[in-house]
Every structure is written in C-alpha cells, then in structure tokens.
Amino acid sequence: MIRLFHVPLSPFCRKVRLSLAEKKLEVELVEERYWEKSTDFLRRNPAGKVPVLKMGGKFLTESAAICEYIEESHPTPSLMPKDADARHEVRRLVSWFDDKFHNEVTSNLLYERVNKKVMGAGYPESSRVKAGAKAIKYHLDYMGWLLDQRRWLAGDTMTLADFAAAAHLSALDYISDVDWNRNENVREWYSKIKSRPAFRSILADQVSGFPPPAHYADLDF
C-alpha cells in the first residue's frame, strides 16, 4: 500500500495527491503534524517537511521529485510531455507556482490565516495578508495570459504544471481567497480541472475550525 504523510491544505501535498489519483494509484493518507517534529517523522524526512510518500518500500521526499518519480515509475497517463522544450516549460511552471506563487501568495494568505492558528503560532500579520491579496491578482492575470495562447497552462495537454497551479489555488479557494471573476480563462480552466475524478478526494477535505465555503466542492461554481 502506498502511504502519503500529508497536511490537507498543503499545496505541495495536494500536487502529489493529484498525481497519484490521476494515475489511479490507491494511497493511504496519514495526516502529519510536521511542526511538532516527532522522532518518527524526522526519521522519514530529516528536513521535517511534508509530503513524504512511502512507495515501494522507500520514503520519498520533496514534492517535485516525488511527482517526477511517480511519472517515471507509472508513465500512463502521462503528466509530462516527451519534447524537451515542452518538458522544460512544465518544470518552469511547476517551479513558478511552488516557489514564486508560494512565496508571494500562499505563504502570505493560507499560512497566515490557517497554518498559524493550527500550529498555535500567533495571529496573522495584516501586512503579509495584504501583500498576498495584492500579489494573487498579478498571478491570476499571468495565468490568464498563458491561457489566452494555450488550452492548458503549459501547452495543449494537461500536465503536472496544471496540478501544481490547481494545488495552490484549491487550497486558497478553501478559505475564499481567489477572485474567480477576475479572469474568465482562469475560471474556465479551474472548472475544467476541478471536475476531474482526481480532484474528488481533495474536494472532500475538511480542516477542523475552518469549514470550506459553499462553492468549494461545487463543480458549476
């Protein structure tokens, strides 16, 4: 049995969950309070971060590396194109969302509003929340620009880049921090990816003390 040590609203964990689900790989989800730095968890990943995937008797860490491992060990259906230039574009966009988007948006909105409370780490910093609310507008506009030229974010087929973006945006949507009316291209793209069977378990997530908004699991939002 594949086992994923995760946090429900972590976009990095969600990206791995989407990859596994798209390839129809059954997984046991184990919630991990990684901030408590338990001895057992640090044995699995000395970096003290989620996700950690137990697969084939190995403990795999770092979400991008995990997703590429899943892709290489279970290549169908493919989430990476065969062409070198196209593969670079997928990796560039995965890095964009997991680095730039995460630092400018996710960490300022989701982490301030949810993670701090869950971890008992104090109150949100209003300056960071304001910075995140401003930055997400730029990122939604950039996604809209990409989708003006492409069917999916990295090209004509759905790839890991779409899952990386959807992982962050779905976590933010859980706390109603995405203005889906800002860009019609982005709204249509998210509606399309949200309706995939791979998304079902993510839409069923519940975080204690943070009920999702009414539209969260609505496929016709």
TrEMBL record:
InterPro entries: Glutathione-S-Trfase_C-like (IPR010987), Glutathione-S-Trfase_C_sf (IPR036282), Glutathione_S-Trfase (IPR040079), Glutathione_S-Trfase_N (IPR004045), GST_C (IPR004046), Thioredoxin-like_sf (IPR036249)
SUPFAM superfamilies assigned to the protein according to its UniProt record, in alphabetical order: GST C-terminal domain-like, Thioredoxin-like
Domain (GST C-terminal): residue spans on this chain: 83-215
Span of domain GST N-terminal: 1-78
Pfam families for the chain: GST_C_3 (PF14497), GST_N_3 (PF13417)
Protein name as catalogued: Glutathione S-transferase family protein
Gene3D superfamilies: 1.20.1050.10, Glutaredoxin
Subunit and interaction comment: Homodimer.
